[in-house]
């Protein structure tokens, strides 16, 4: 069934919770932002088919990495919705390993860069900004739980917060690496 009419009054339910919540609540905002980044990563994945990064740590097939990130984001969404699912430390370390491998190939960052270059790099940059918004929304939920000492809600796992923080970093690394692979020189802001 694609619709139930139960949300017509501006409320929704999360996994494992019988109580309806406002669609404008912090948890609904966080879940919506996570859904948005996951959906946008689907576009990035399709556009990145055939893109391979040759790093010291080995060959990185970008579409496969994006797919794994999408799967991990479902774990984050499930955790926020109340399921007994959590991002573990190994998933954070996996992201860090890829980021570190890409960083070794890139010129050092000395300034900001204007988004662009290739279509795929730009899509990675857009996904980075969506990921940052999703992270801010999840941090907001985490702070709300801690501030209200709400014992009916579980604290957000520290690895989940770390994973979301690394997510924007890896997407930035992907944008830069895609441009490097395609011989595109990064444009810096002129501030004039």
TrEMBL record:
PANTHER family: CORRINOID ADENOSYLTRANSFERASE, CORRINOID ADENOSYLTRANSFERASE MMAB. GO terms for molecular function: ATP binding; corrinoid adenosyltransferase activity. Pfam families: Cob_adeno_trans. One of its GO terms (biological process) is cobalamin biosynthetic process. This is Corrinoid adenosyltransferase. Keywords: ATP-binding, Cobalamin biosynthesis, Nucleotide-binding, Transferase. Pathway: Cofactor biosynthesis; adenosylcobalamin biosynthesis; adenosylcobalamin from cob(II)yrinate a,c-diamide: step 2/7. It comes from Candidatus Nomurabacteria bacterium GW2011_GWA2_40_9. Signal peptide: none annotated. The lineage of its organism: Bacteria, Candidatus Nomuraibacteriota. InterPro entries: CblAdoTrfase-like, CblAdoTrfase-like_sf, PduO-typ. It catalyses: 2 cob(II)alamin + reduced [electron-transfer flavoprotein] + 2 ATP = 2 adenosylcob(III)alamin + 2 triphosphate + oxidized [electron-transfer flavoprotein] + 3 H(+); 2 cob(II)yrinate a,c diamide + reduced [electron-transfer flavoprotein] + 2 ATP = 2 adenosylcob(III)yrinate a,c-diamide + 2 triphosphate + oxidized [electron-transfer flavoprotein] + 3 H(+).
């Amino acid at each position: 069934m694609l619709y139930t009419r139960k949300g017509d009054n501006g409320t929704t339910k999360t996994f494992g919770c019988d109580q309806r919540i406002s669609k404008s609540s912090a948890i609904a905002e966080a879940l919506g932002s996570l859904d948005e980044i996951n959906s946008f990563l689907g576009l990035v994945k399709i556009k990145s088919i055939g893109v391979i990064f040759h790093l010291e740590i080995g060959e990185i097939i970008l579409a496969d990495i994006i797919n794994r990130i999408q799967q991990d984001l479902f774990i984050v969404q499930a955790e926020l919705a109340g399921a007994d699912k959590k991002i573990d430390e190994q998933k954070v370390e996996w992201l860090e390993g890829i980021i570190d491998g890409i960083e070794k190939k890139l010129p050092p960052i000395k300034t900001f860069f204007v988004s662009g270059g290739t279509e795929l790099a730009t899509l990675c940059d857009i996904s980075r900004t969506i990921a940052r918004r999703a992270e801010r929304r999840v941090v907001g939920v985490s702070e709300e739980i801690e501030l209200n000492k709400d014992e009916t809600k579980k604290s957000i796992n520290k690895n989940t917060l770390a994973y979301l923080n690394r997510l924007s970093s890896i997407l930035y690394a992907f944008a830069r690496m895609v441009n490097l692979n395609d011989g595109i020189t990064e444009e810096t802001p002129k501030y004039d």
